[in-house]
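Continuing from the previous page of notes. For each protein in this section, the sequence appears first, followed by its structure tokens. Read the first protein now.
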Amino acid sequence: MERLKGIKGAIFDLDGTLLDSMGIWGEIDRRFLERRGIELPEDYIDVMKFMEFNRAAEYTIRRFGLDETPEALMAEWTQMSREAYAREIELKPGVRACLARLAQAGVKIAAATSCTQELFVPALKRGGVYDLFSAFATTAEAGVGKHSPAVFLLAAQRLGLEPQACAVFEDTLQGVLTAREAGFATVGVYDESSDAEQEDIRRQANFYIRSFLEFGPPSGGK
């Protein structure tokens, strides 16, 4: 925490950074196909992850010869993801203590995420940290993904702070690079899903952590 001395705002990515959620999408794929008596092919998840939602639905129908509409598949996937975030997705170890310590130190906390509020709000509330956030910003609101700094700048604006007064916590190399180029301090956070990028993240971020447990327990006072 001493490494972030002077920072007035902390902006967090959610999936893969605060939430241990990256594996749920593969699990949703497995459950979805299992309902139809289909075993999950080894390459399916890797193929799907680069597709837009509607294209993924169309691809799935073609590949498995399903007598269903893309709209029906997307509705089912959406409902499955809602249930997973509301009931299964957990905070990463040490997150609750880290956020509490930042809040106690007077640091304003925001999220900058590609996730939708209908998914992340239940997960943060169940984790007991929702009320620690002062602002939320999504890429849908920003109108562009994290190859642009728009979502980080929107989060900082909602905190009433300049980028130079904020640290961005990200688990992906793209997120780290984009935030750094926009003037934010950056903290790389390890996640298994981006394991191949870890050495680059470590080099490019101002700070790097394997776990939020490195921040230790919350301390009283400011």
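Done with the first. The second protein uses the same format. Note its length before scrolling.
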Amino acid sequence: MINTKIILANRPKGFIEDHNFDTLTEQLPSLEDGELLIKIEAISLDPAIRGWMNEGTTYIKGIEIGAVIRTFSAGKVIQSKNTSFKEGDYVSGLLGAQHYSISDGKNLTTIDISQGKLSYHLGVLGMPGMTAYFGLLEKGKPVKEDVVFVSGAAGIVGSTVGQIAKIKGCTVIGSAGSDTKCDYLINECGFDHAINYKTEDMNSQLKKYAPHGIHIYYDNVGGPTLDIALQNLAQGARVVICGAISQYNAADMYGPKNYMKIVTARGTLTGIIVFDYVPQFPNAVKEIGDWIDKGKITPKEHIVTGLENFPSALKMLYTGENFGKLILTI
């Protein structure tokens, strides 16, 4: 069998470019005992991929030059010499941007597609949904009537955070980059307020919508947005740093100027790495699935088709062109 995969040709300097990727076609080896062959049907495009393209190790080692681009992907087992998986099973994991993946079964998650379509298991029921769930509930610790501000709120993580916060009885404010996305936050996700950061003054709008301050700031953006949020913290505020999509392609990372506001607010600033909660994923998937069934969470997806479109689709994350969870289908 022939496999086609997207590999890292060279490391980006600043914004990712087409020349950072290459396409490689090769014959698949025969399976060894304990291995399984997965036909990938959907690939998750996530902001973290840009960080993984850098050299070095943070919470996970950078992708090697010439290696397949690391992605969360999902597909069907078509051959198995692993007793834990059988042909016909659906699985997800860090399977990469390719048509097929051979796995030893470690760190694979079996997908029950009766709990939601396959793409949902890469979005609201996958790593982004788990990031939202544990980042808000375990790190933010919302209580009823808290004011929650979410940046990058129209993305899958941000919109899920906001909808869970509403379930918990919070007032929710979101920021996004267009009037259409702001309308989506209010009319489909149930946010109380939405700020178009491109056309509105975020600081004055936060003071209007949260006159007594923000109790939880869930940060997906970083940069000046984080500075503004820090200026508007309530006493005892919890700041959860999930990502900094405004900075991933920057040559020099922008650091927060107002970090001392954490001190005056008697607050906390913490980070969320979703891999820390893997043993708890099944319970979270079940609860989010129940909320979807009850209409309390409404997922939104942006689907791109064709492995050859991987580089152009990935760029959409960092320009704000996507609207909803960005998935590449094969």
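What the second structure shows: Residues 36 and 103 are 5 Å apart (CA to CA). The chain is about 25% helix and 25% strand. We return to this in next week's lecture.
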